[in-house]
Amino acid sequence: MRIIQLSDIHLFSDEGELTTIHFNNFNRVVDFIIDNKHALNADFIIVTGDISHDGGLPSYDVFFNLMAKIGLPFYYLPGNHDNSINLCSSGVKHGAVSDTSLVYDEDWVVITIDSIFENEDFGFISNNSLRDLEHAANSAGGKNIALFMHHHLIPVGTPIVDDCMLRNASDVLELCLRLNIKFIGSGHAHTLFQRKIESALVSVCPAICSQWLNGTKEVNVVKNSGFNIVSLDDNIHIETWLI
Question: What is the pTM of this model?
Answer without folding.
Answer: 0.97
